[in-house]
């Protein structure tokens, strides 16, 4: 046993530094008052009193009852309640109370043993207050008469040390028999004479060895009888019986036998228990005729392993004798192991290191031998393990890193089993809660977000929401949102987008213009409330949806407020389908909002002209006639495809060039020519004058057109350079800008007919007929109508 203890101590010193191998031992006298100081346990344990409070020191007893308490301020161990050694330990030679001094942060405990010393606080007590003996006269000197021994609950020197007779007489002395169990006998020293003294009374006194000594008495009454020569004699001085602790009531343990040599009434023997202090006799019964000793009440090996009884045999003449009966109770496995928790820490942080002590507990089994051998195990547990600590103590420790998000509570079941047959088990469940630490950053439910907002939106418009969740708990899972710079902290975040810090709602703070900003991208951060906080970010792409908020802009013909509409020339010989002009317009919107359609809204001669619905080309529907007015005014409606549609108008002025409308000059005969020579000369002069006037008017008209085009190229810009470039590019892509058209007009004199030659469109590669005009400083090129006049005089 000592070698096993040394091995356990060596293991504890090497593997469990928190455990003190040898217990701290103290002694204290029983019956001490509550609050009596036992010792300075802090000093003996090598601890400062301040450590006791800081580390929450306390006393833990496996039995559950606290006989002592710890004064944390002074470090003293004091008595918590009155100690009665006889109540706690009975007549055991040693009475040791074992408990532990537990400290936390880190977990450490010191075993302590306090020996309770006996004081002389009990007087001897005889089984009976009065004992009567019937002794025959002329009895032989040396005859012995047994008397039930007195009992003293104290032990050692405080137990009974001597017996005496008061008053002393010449007939009896006291003999103490202690060879096979202590009992006393009265020894007859001188024969009695019934005729002289038929009865006799004296006091038997038992005295202990305490200081001062205590004593107990019983009255002895002697009745002198006629001769009964033989007293009963037991076949054995000591009877020993064995019985299982779970034997049923009424079971016979053993039988005592006494023999009396007398005959008749003097030979009739009856058996009885000699009255004694305690409850032992109440557990057994004895048959007064047969001497069989049976079980009266259930026995318990753990309460008392051995019972000592005194049986007295009395014959009919009053003579008696005594024997000792020892009943040994045999242990059966009727007690399951007990699990007594001394310390339990819950909840624990999820980031604790493997090997952290969660609980400290002790196990015990009141059975003995193999029935009291205990093994402990965990049921299907991967995160925790049991580690032996000291004697019957175990530590519940972690074996790996815990994760609260994976499992927030562990139900750890400890099973203690003994080695009995069949084995008995008991379990204890530790509910270990895992406290959260901030080890998870918020996670968005999408890798990126795309949201849409219509231009010209209302301020502070909600356009969507981002959502992030945090697998942690409590404040560590509370997510707040914010807009952060996309390229680092030195960059200012976007001022036109905001996010609600609690709900994640994304708001556009001011109206947006599709023509200026078609999309933007912001970075939204989600941060938890942990310490330190963890965060993650996501990209939010905001697309501006175009609204039909821009009416078509007519680029040609120019419609300045202070200038008259531009004029186009149509020769008299033009045919149906010939191009007169082209209305060029753009729309700053995009998509279907920029699709333009053209419609002839008003005309001097509605049946003379037609407008291409998609191209904006103004063509002749039929050849002009002399009935048509020379100046035609057209109003072309340009409309986009938005909902609702927006429109603009372009005013055109068309001049029908005068000339012969399929009429031939009359043929004159030579005679008539001679007769009308003067008239012809007048007509020629008039024609030349009219031709010169027309040439001057045409030259002035061409000069005016050139000036207007210069003003258009250098005039005020309605949109920015980049916008107009975009608009013209969009218009070209949509097919609303034309190729170049060139007209060649040839006027001749000296003939009977004026010829107007209308040419087909020519490719813009001809350098003489290509006009490039920069609008608003942009690099977009716009093809214009070029008019070439070739006057042949």
TrEMBL record:
The keyword ATP-binding does not apply. The keyword Transmembrane applies. It is a single-pass type I membrane protein. It is found in: Cell membrane. One of its GO terms (biological process) is homophilic cell adhesion via plasma membrane adhesion molecules. Keywords: Calcium, Cell adhesion, Cell membrane, Glycoprotein, Membrane, Repeat, Signal, Transmembrane, Transmembrane helix. Potential calcium-dependent cell-adhesion protein. May be involved in the establishment and maintenance of specific neuronal connections in the brain. The chain crosses the membrane at residues 683-704. Residues 20-126, 127-234, 235-339, 340-444, 445-554, 562-672 form the Cadherin domain. It comes from the Eukaryota. It comes from Gallus gallus. One of its GO terms (molecular function) is calcium ion binding. This is Cadherin domain-containing protein. Residues 1-21 form the signal peptide. GO terms for cellular component: plasma membrane. PANTHER family: CADHERIN-87A, PROTOCADHERIN BETA-1.
């Amino acid at each position: 046993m000592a070698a096993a203890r040394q091995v356990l101590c060596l293991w504890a010193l090497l593997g469990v530094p928190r455990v003190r191998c040898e217990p701290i031992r103290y002694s204290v006298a029983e019956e001490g008052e509550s609050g009596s100081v036992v010792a300075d346990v802090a000093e003996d344990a090598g601890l400062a009193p301040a450590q006791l409070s800081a580390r929450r020191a306390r006393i833990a007893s496996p039995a559950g009852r606290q006989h002592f308490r710890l004064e944390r301020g002074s470090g003293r161990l004091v008595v918590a309640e009155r100690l009665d050694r006889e109540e706690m330990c009975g007549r055991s030679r040693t009475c040791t109370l074992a408990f532990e001094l537990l400290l936390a942060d880190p977990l450490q405990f010191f075993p302590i043993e306090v020996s309770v010393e006996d004081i002389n606080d009990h007087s001897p007590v005889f089984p009976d207050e009065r004992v009567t003996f019937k002794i025959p006269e002329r009895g032989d000197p040396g005859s012995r008469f047994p008397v039930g021994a007195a009992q003293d609950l104290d032990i050692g020197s405080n137990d009974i040390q001597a017996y005496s007779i008061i008053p002393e007489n010449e007939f009896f002395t006291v003999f103490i028999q202690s060879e096979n169990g202590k009992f006393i006998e009265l020894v007859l020293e001188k024969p009695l004479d019934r005729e002289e003294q038929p009865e006799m009374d004296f006091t038997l006194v038992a005295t202990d060895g305490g200081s001062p000594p205590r004593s107990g008495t019983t009255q002895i009454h002697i009745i002198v009888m006629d001769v009964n020569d033989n007293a009963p004699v037991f076949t054995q001085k000591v009877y020993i019986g064995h019985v299982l602790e779970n034997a049923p009531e009424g079971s016979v343990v053993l039988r005592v036998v006494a023999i009396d040599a007398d005959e008749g009434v003097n030979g009739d023997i009856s058996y009885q228990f000699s009255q004694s202090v305690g409850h032992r006799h109440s557990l057994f019964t004895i048959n007064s005729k047969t001497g069989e000793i049976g079980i009266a009440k259930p026995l318990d090996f753990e309460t008392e392993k051995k019972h000592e009884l005194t049986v007295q045999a009395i014959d009919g003449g009053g003579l008696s004798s005594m024997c000792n009966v020892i009943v040994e109770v045999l242990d059966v496995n009727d007690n399951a192991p007990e699990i007594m928790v001394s310390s339990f820490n819950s909840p624990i942080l999820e980031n604790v290191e493997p090997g952290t002590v969660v609980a400290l507990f002790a196990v015990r089994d009141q059975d003995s031998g193999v029935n009291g051998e205990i093994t402990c195990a965990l049921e299907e547990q991967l995160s925790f393990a049991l580690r032996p600590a000291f004697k019957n103590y175990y530590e519940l420790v972690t074996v790996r890193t815990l994760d609260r998000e994976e499992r927030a509570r562990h139900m750890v079941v400890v099973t203690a089993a003994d080695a009995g047959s069949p084995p008995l088990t008991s379990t204890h469940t530790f509910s270990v809660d895992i406290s959260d630490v901030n080890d998870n950053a918020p996670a968005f439910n999408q890798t990126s977000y795309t949201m849409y907002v219509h231009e010209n939106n209302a301020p502070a418009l909600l356009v969507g929401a981002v959502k992030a969740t945090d697998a942690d708990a409590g404040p560590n899972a509370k997510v707040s949102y914010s807009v952060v710079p996309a390229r680092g902290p030195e960059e200012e975040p976007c001022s036109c987008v905001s996010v609600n810090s609690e709900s994640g709602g994304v708001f556009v703070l001011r109206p947006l213009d599709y023509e200026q900003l078609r999309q933007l991208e912001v970075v939204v951060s989600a941060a938890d409330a942990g310490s330190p906080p963890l965060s993650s970010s996501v990209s939010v792409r905001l697309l501006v949806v175009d609204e039909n908020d821009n009416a078509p802009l007519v680029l040609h013909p120019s419609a300045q407020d202070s200038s008259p509409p531009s004029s186009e020339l149509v020769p008299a010989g033009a045919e149906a389908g010939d191009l007169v002009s082209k209305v060029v317009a753009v729309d700053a919107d995009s998509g279907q909002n920029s699709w333009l359609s053209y419609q002839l809204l008003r005309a001097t001669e509605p049946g003379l002209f037609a407008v291409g619905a998609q191209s904006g080309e103004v063509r002749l529907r039929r050849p002009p006639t002399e009935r048509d007015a020379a100046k035609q005014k057209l109003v072309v409606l340009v409309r986009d495809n938005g909902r609702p549609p927006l429109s603009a108008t372009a005013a055109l002025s068309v001049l029908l060039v005068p000339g012969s409308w399929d009429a031939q000059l009359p043929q004159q005969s030579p005679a008539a020519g001679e007769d009308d020579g003067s008239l012809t000369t007048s007509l020629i002069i008039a024609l030349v004058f009219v031709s010169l006037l027309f040439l001057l008017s045409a030259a002035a008209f061409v000069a005016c057109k050139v000036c207007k085009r210069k003003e258009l190229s250098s005039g005020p810009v309605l949109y920015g350079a980049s916008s107009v470039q975009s608009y013209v590019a969009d218009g070209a892509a949509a097919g609303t800008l034309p190729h170049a058209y060139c007209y060649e007009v040839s006027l001749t004199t000296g003939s009977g007919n004026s010829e107007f030659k209308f040419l087909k469109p020519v490719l813009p590669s001809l350098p003489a007929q290509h006009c490039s005009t920069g609008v608003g400083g942009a690099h977009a090129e716009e093809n214009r109508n070029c008019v070439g006049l070739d006057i042949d005089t």
